[in-house]
Amino acid sequence: MSDTAVTQAELIVRTIAQTAVDNEKYFCDLDAVVGDGDFGYSLARGFEIVLSDFDDLEYEDAGGLLKKTALVLTKRIGGTSGPIWGTAFLRAGTNSKGKQAVTLAELVVMARAAIQGMMARGNATQGDKTLLDAVIPAVDKLEEYSKSAPEDLLGAFRAAAAAAEEAIESTRNWPAKRGRQSYAGERTVGTLDPGIVAVATMMKAAVAALETNAGT
């Protein structure tokens, strides 16, 4: 990110929130296969508040926006998803506090902090068939770009989104080991994890928004 970090953060947060609301039924349907079917509903209830309150949020930098978003999600998203998503935004925001400009390398630091927070909150790690299996490969791609093409934010996001999307099918035949999906045991083999799909869908939408903003 450059000196437009706040503007880009606003664009990405709005896009993620709108994607959660627009895909409420889709995410619920995925969750209903072996879960209780409320994942999409819970996610949408939190992010619709982010959208409705967006213009009234007070913040001075990208970190402030992320922390304000974290507070809303923690309060409004039910079940275990609220603390996990809220922690992700909070940790990312804390690691960008006071910065008007954020480099791609700094964005990776923010994302790694978010991952550590999600892992601690959900007592999960990569390989457990949770949203982490989309987030971690995506951040790995961001890190690759931060070293090889540090100014190519859009290219980095495209690669990260592709990695997240690949996780949808590559994890299909894994058993879920954490979260409510794990209660179904071996029945989760052959199913898609709604958290992984949600992350991939949000990242794809974020790339499209960045492309539109860049005029590409």
Task: Kindly name the structural category.
Answer: mainly alpha
Percentage beta strand: under 5%
The overall pLDDT, averaged over residues, is 94
Query: Fraction of residues in helices?
Result: 55-70%
- Gyration radius (Cα, Å) is 16 Å
What is the CATH superfamily label?
Answer: DhaL domain
Shape: globular
CATH top-level class: Mainly Alpha
DSSP, total strands: 0
User: In the CATH hierarchy, what is the architecture at level 2?
Assistant: Alpha Horseshoe
Number of domains: 1
Describe the structure.
With 216 residues, this protein is mainly α. It has one domain (5-214): Serine Threonine Protein Phosphatase 5, Tetratricopeptide repeat (Alpha Horseshoe), CATH 1.25.40.340. It has nine helices and no strands. The longest helix is centred in the C-terminal third of the chain and has 21 residues, at 194-214.
Name the features:
globular; mainly alpha; 9 helices; 216 residues; Serine Threonine Protein Phosphatase 5, Tetratricopeptide repeat
Short description:
By secondary structure, this protein is mainly α. Helices cover 68% and strands 0% of the residues. The radius of gyration is 16 Å and the shape is globular.
Topology (SSEs and partners):
Layout: H1 5-22, H2 24-32, H3 39-53, H4 62-76, H5 81-94, H6 104-122, H7 132-148, H8 153-170, H9 194-214
